[in-house]
Amino acid sequence: MGVLNKVVNTIRNIFGSGKTSTPDNTSARLAELRKLMQQEQIDFYLAPSIDAHNSEYVPECWQRRTWISNFTGSAGEALIGLNEALLSTDGRYFLQADQELNAKYFTLLKQQGFVPETELWLKKNTQGKTLGIDAKLIGIARFNQLNNLMTSLGGKLVKLSENLIDKARANLNEQLPLPNTPALTLDIKYTGQSTKDKLTWLRGEIKAIGTDFIALNALDEIAWLFNIRGNDIDFNPYVISYVLVSADKAVLYADNNKFTADMIVELVKSGITVKPYDEFYADAGKIETSVLLDDKVASQWMLDAISANVNKVFVPSPIVLKKSRKNLTEISG
């Protein structure tokens, strides 16, 4: 251990401590969040690192876990209680978390793998307590796990109408706007397959599965399906968006300002309607028959948008496997 400590100290001396250069506002931020938690009558609040699209890398305005904990790693989640605060992450980030977390306020939960320690801690420490979440940030499968866990403990899981960290940021004048960067469409000479052909294939897949709609929130799947790229997230060429596809409709929910008039025309020619990002929830509520949802990726908020009478089929999105099989154009680069 002595040799290892010397190596670690040498690395720190060469590259710095890894701490952020911004002031540590942990105390003020936790105090503001806890005030909101008390107003909502919850004992704990879960702050995942992902966004509403299950993205590992998210725009700065949605880096909620980073904002509350000061931990900047790409994986992990914070659990904030009225009297304690915890950060769960895996072994890739133990040293970084140790450097970035303020030990006065945060306890590090060290994952033994890639499954968060959060549930284990909740099981031991939250008998009869209330856990609050933002349903946009919790996948359907995990929501069910958390709900079952809290019920078994005599507590409850509460879906809040607003993200409390966003609200705390706004109260402290630290909120950032959503990115508004231009999008672009890729020519078939780069993709090897047109958007029309991809939609024809996808419609065949969802018909074979036995559903009339598919709802998508994964940005990489949307980018592949519609041959679009963007700059909303650093180092990730995606456009923040949702998608609904049926036998006769394909709707892209995104900020219209990201697309030029020529791009809108091109998308329309491919059979795509572009609607405002915020209209996805209402339109999902208009589905009357059946819908495919990937319950590991789609959020509980998406499920809540859909009528209870609609048949939901929870299977992996067929796009995941399809886009992993590169065509000759993609292979040639």
Describe this structure in words.
- It contains 15 helices and 14 strands.
- It has 333 residues and is α/β, with parallel strands linked by helices.
- The protein has two domains: 2-171, Creatinase/prolidase N-terminal domain (Creatine Amidinohydrolase, Chain A, domain 1); 184-332, 3-Layer(aba) Sandwich (Creatine Amidinohydrolase, Chain A, domain 1), CATH 3.40.350.
- Strands 4-3-2-1-5-6 form a six-stranded mixed beta sheet.
- Helix 6 (140-152) links the parallel strand 5 and strand 6.
- The termini are far apart.
- Residues 5-21 have low confidence and may be disordered.
Key terms:
2 domains; 6-stranded mixed beta sheet; alpha/beta; 15 helices; single chain; Creatine Amidinohydrolase, Chain A, domain 1; 333 residues
Shape: globular
Largest sheet data: 6 strands, mixed
List low-pLDDT spans.
Answer: 5-21
How many domains would you count in the coordinates?
Answer: 2
What is the count of β-strands?
A: 14
Task: Name the structural class.
Answer: alpha/beta
Arithmetic mean of pLDDT: 92
Give the proportion of residues in helices: 25-40%
Q: N-to-C terminal Cα separation, in Å?
A: 47 Å
CATH-assigned homologous superfamily of the largest domain? Creatinase/prolidase N-terminal domain
Secondary-structure element pattern, one letter each: HHEHEEHEHEHEHEHHEHEEEHEHEHEHH
Major sheet: arrangement of strands:
4-3-2-1-5-6
Please state the second-level CATH architecture of the largest domain.
3-Layer(aba) Sandwich
Q: What gyration radius follows from the Cα positions, in whole Å?
A: 22 Å
The CATH C-level class name of the largest domain: Alpha Beta
SS element count, helices:
15
Using the coordinates shown, work out and report the CATH topology of the largest domain. Answer: Creatine Amidinohydrolase, Chain A, domain 1
